[in-house]
Design a protein that fits this description.
The protein is of the alpha/beta class. It is about 30% helix and about 15% strand. It has a nine-stranded mixed beta sheet, sandwiched between helices. It has a two-stranded antiparallel sheet with strand order 10-11. The longest helix has 27 residues.
Length: about 550
């Protein structure tokens, strides 16, 4: 019996001729045997783990443990079905303290397990990054605090916990959660999936690289897998914006820069007329020198000083080794300037406190203003790259096991520039050893999407951070991955959505499998049929040096 949580998704899958072969596991109501089975998990024994609690949560009864949840999270949680909530702790080393949370649906389990990723510096369970919507889809879902609770700043002198953050916590979450799934539903075999974005995208690629047998399908968004070098990107941007007081731009000046980018490139790279975002930023030859420049000694929101113009060029260039000229990491993507994690964030000195990678690598010697991108970068890589980075492009073992990998990245993401994701994906394909295995991975680049979600484009594909479960398979990246993993043809496109606003109707637009991009062919801009997927050139326009792919 095939099972989809949503009837429309089931219809779409059936019409595609899918034979997924996964039966629904019938469970009793919360007051019946399933509820009693939940409570018995407190006494379950899983090597290297300890159960803290196991209790039934009634439908709509989950109370978020944080005092001030992210906007909309409380409303999303209010419509959760009944589930068994398991809280556990894993300790692969004496210094480890890995928090794990697992939710087991009491009814309508879809026969699958979903591991979900965290974000940023982690430190707590991430309920809004896949758990809530995963449970609504019928998955048993889990998340981990990555072993750095309550605050990553407290583990500066704990290298074993760095390893937990880098890879062990996600593997232990998976190992422990799958043991409970098997025990609770009394099954020995079931499919396992992982989805995550940003830090969660790093976790996703860690699973494919280090633990290829943990998951059958992996959805990795805006992956922060090049961790030491993406940290150098944030530091490079901080130094650039704080080199001199006059180097900082006002919000109005940044708006002027963004408007200049769009005037030069929007709608000319395959996009539609009126787009306020770029479809393929690699085709944008924007020159900041074309913007109004202030007279000597003048300062205005309507022009740029020489120092400001130099800072913008440096941001677009990105971090390079000052001695050899080798690229460490891509620079800021044109068209992403005004989005969250953009340049205005780089100007804030508080960002230095979040550069935990630099502190771990250099200890008390770390100075945000005095960091040497030649010598200090090498020191950090020597100490941390093997622990934190997930740059290995050899996914042949994952592919041989039948694993499927879907990556996605926003083309207006200022936090993880898409050029780094493109370079990694191209390297994965180049490393594949057998022709039949090269069809195990897909990359979807989303025009106008910022970091993981949102942005000025049409960007909702049911990814982590999305606030609802799509009703159609083509709108749901996760369930498209499931269908592909379980026998459907490899996906060639998704259809992203943007909800209607008070001043604009809802829109839909195809998101194409790279190297194709959606090009406007005429007609209603909000209609996906007005676009065609057209192949563009492959490759990153700012590839990092092999020295910095460790």
């Amino acid at each position: 019996m095939r099972f989809y949580k949503n009837k429309a998704v089931a219809t779409a899958a059936a019409s595609a001729g899918l034979a997924l072969g996964l039966a629904v596991q019938p469970m009793a109501h919360a007051s019946g045997p399933a509820g009693a089975a939940c409570e018995t998990l407190v006494g379950a024994v899983v090597p290297g783990a300890r159960v803290i609690s196991a209790a039934v949560v009634a439908a709509g009864g989950f109370i978020l443990p944080m005092a001030v949840p992210e906007p909309g999270l409380r409303e999303r949680a209010a419509s959760l079905p009944a589930f068994c909530r398991v809280q556990a702790n894993a300790a692969p080393t004496p210094d480890s303290n890995i928090g794990i949370e697992l939710w087991l649906p009491l009814e309508g389990w879809n026969g699958r397990f979903l591991g979900t990723g965290n974000g940023g510096a982690a430190g707590s369970i991430a309920y809004g990054m896949g758990m809530i919507e995963g449970l609504k889809r019928g998955f048993a879902v889990a998340n981990t605090d990555m072993g750095v609770a309550p605050d990553i700043a407290q583990v500066d002198e704990h290298p074993e916990r760095w390893k937990d953050f880098g890879h062990r916590a996600t593997h232990d979450m998976t190992r422990v959660a799958k043991a409970f799934v098997g025990a609770f539903y009394k099954v020995g075999v079931f499919r396992s999936y992982f989805e995550g974005c940003s830090t969660g995208g790093q976790q996703a690629l860690v699973m494919a690289q280090r633990y290829p047998g943990d998951y059958d399908g992996i959805l990795a968004g805006a992956p922060g897998n090049n961790r030491t070098h993406s940290s150098s990107y944030f530091l490079w941007n901080y130094q650039t914006m704080n080199a001199a007081l006059d180097a900082k731009l006002s919000p109005l000046q940044w708006s002027m820069v963004s408007s200049g980018v769009l005037a030069a490139c929007a709608g000319k790279d395959g996009g539609a007329p009126g787009d306020r975002f770029l479809t393929d930023p690699r085709r944008c030859g924007f020159d900041p020198g074309s913007l109004p420049q202030c007279a000597a000694g003048g300062i205005s929101d309507q022009c740029l000083t020489a120092l400001q113009l130099s800072a913008i060029r440096r941001l677009y260039m990105g971090p390079v080794n000052p001695v050899t000229g080798e690229r460490i990491y891509p620079g800021l993507t044109p068209g992403s300037e005004a989005l969250p994690l953009g340049p205005s964030r780089f100007s804030d000195p508080s960002i230095v406190a979040r550069l935990f990678v630099m502190r771990w690598g250099l200890g008390r010697a770390f100075s945000a203003d005095g960091f040497d991108f030649d010598r200090d970068m090498d020191r950090i890589d020597a100490r941390l790259s093997s622990t934190l980075n997930a740059n290995d492009s050899d996914l042949n073992e994952f592919a041989r096991r039948g694993g499927k990998l879907m990556l996605y990245s926003g083309l207006a993401d200022p936090g993880v520039p898409f050029n780094d994701v493109v370079q990694y994906y191209d390297r994965v394909l180049a490393t594949s050893t057998a022709a039949e295995e090269r069809d195990f991975a897909r990359l979807f680049l989303v025009p106008g999407m910022g970091h993981c979600v949102g942005g000025p484009g049409v960007t909702d594909i049911g990814q982590p951070f999305s606030h609802e479960v799509p009703s159609r398979l083509e709108n749901d990246a996760l369930m498209t991955l499931v269908a592909w993993t379980e026998g459907a043809p490899a996906p060639q496109q998704l259809v992203a959505r943007k909800p209607a606003a008070s001043d604009a109707p809802g829109q839909a637009r195809p998101i194409c499998a790279y190297p194709a991009f959606p090009e406007y062919r005429g007609g209603e801009v909000g209609n996906p049929d007005s676009f065609a997927c057209v192949e563009h050139a492959r490759g990153s326009s700012q590839p990092s040096s092999a020295r910095y792919l460790n």
